[in-house]
UniProtKB/TrEMBL annotation:
It comes from Actinacidiphila yanglinensis. InterPro entries: Ferritin-like_SF (IPR009078), RNR-like (IPR012348), RNR_small (IPR033909), RNR_small_fam (IPR000358). GO terms for molecular function: metal ion binding; ribonucleoside-diphosphate reductase activity, thioredoxin disulfide as acceptor. Gene3D superfamilies: Ribonucleotide Reductase, subunit A. This is Ribonucleoside-diphosphate reductase subunit beta. Provides the precursors necessary for DNA synthesis. Catalyzes the biosynthesis of deoxyribonucleotides from the corresponding ribonucleotides.
Length: 338
């Protein structure tokens, strides 16, 4: 049954009518995502175990912290997806995409569970990694950033007025631009730094597919933002711009404290100052995509990330039958990534 009062994407309700379809692009995103299905069983982590034994103590510390972040990151995103995005994006075709995204987040959670079980054979180490949001300050800080933006919409049952819609938009933008689009992109850089040195290929393989999924999650969320901007341009005022910019700055600072924890005094090719430039460059890309001015003007210092978009496609073509190539051509946007 269609509610005649529903005119815009953020109007409250649980719209059910798929024909005539109001937002066919969201439906196409759902169909494209299905073509990219992968399973954790396809990722072979065996050679990683031998590589881990070869790492220096500083590198082992870095990888230990990184997987501890992976232990909970995608579960937090999944929770917000169900509790906030699914609830308030009022289009059945968009909810189809969100259902698919939820499945992909479940695969990511399973991938990282398998990764931690493989990388951390000692039960005590494993328990400590899964409790990182409680015990490791640099990871706890990032989790608290996420929880703060989840809590900001906690009491919003319906997006009845402008203030509710702004709060929702900030939550959506936070999860897409700062969490999937910055925290996760920070994590991917460490993985590809190892890969550029011929290490941890199992992790890199799984990361290729997670990276690809996250790029699409972010892209969908930005399309939702674009749609809302078209339908309700008055929501996109200087106050929203300032709040998003401040949120992005906070995310960069939290990710930098994490970088400092991971890198310490620095490792060959990976240190806090390079990470700062990389994160600032990524943050500027997110702000620009959202239609807001960039704030840092930094360049990407990581050549191994510039190749990432191309490398990901190459790996996909090598491994996948032709059925999957259709989706790759249509959905991967190289200009949004490195
Ligand atoms: Fe994910
Ligand atoms: Fe995601």
């Amino acid at each position: 049954m269609t509610d005649p009062t529903v005119k815009n994407l953020l109007d409250p309700g649980f719209e059910l009518t798929l024909r005539p379809m109001r937002y066919p692009d969201f439906y196409e995103r759902y169909r494209d995502a299905i073509k990219n299905t992968w399973t954790v069983e396809e990722v072979d982590l065996h050679s990683d175990v031998a590589d881990l034994a070869k790492l220096s103590p500083a590198e082992q510390h870095l990888i230990g912290r990184l997987v501890a972040f992976f232990a909970t990151g995608d579960s937090i995103v999944s929770n917000n997806l169900v509790l906030t995005l699914y609830k308030h994006i009022n289009s059945p075709e968009a909810r189809l995409y969100l259902s698919r995204q939820l499945f992909e987040e479940a695969v990511h959670v399973q991938f990282y569970l398998t990764l931690l079980d493989t990388y951390l054979p000692d039960p005590e180490d494993r328990t400590a990694a899964f409790a990182a949001v409680e015990n490791i300050p640099s990871i706890r800080e990032k989790a608290q950033f996420c929880f703060r933006w989840m809590d900001s919409v906690d009491t919003v049952d319906r997006l009845d007025d402008r203030d509710d819609r702004r709060r929702f938009l900030l939550n959506l933008i936070c999860f897409a631009a700062c969490i999937e689009g910055l925290f996760f992109y920070g994590a991917f850089a460490y993985v590809y730094w190892f890969r550029s040195r011929g290490l941890l290929h199992g992790l890199a393989t799984g990361t290729n597919w997670v990276f690809r999924d996250e790029t699409m999650h972010m892209s969908f969320a930005f399309d939702v933002v674009d749609t809302v901007r078209k339908e309700e341009p008055e929501l996109f005022d200087p106050q929203l711009r300032d709040e998003v910019t401040e949120m992005m700055r906070e995310a960069v600072e939290a990710e930098l404290r994490f970088a400092h924890d991971l890198c310490g005094e620095g490792l060959p090719g990976m240190n806090t100052s390079s990470m700062r430039e990389y994160l600032q460059c990524v943050a500027d890309q997110r702000l620009t995509r959202l239609g807001f001015p960039p704030v840092y003007g930094s360049e990407n210092p990581f050549s191994f990330m510039e190749l990432q978009g191309v490398q990901e496609l190459t790996n996909f073509f090598e491994r996948r039958p032709s059925a999957y190539q259709l989706a790759v051509e249509g959905t991967v946007s190289l200009d949004e990534d490195f």
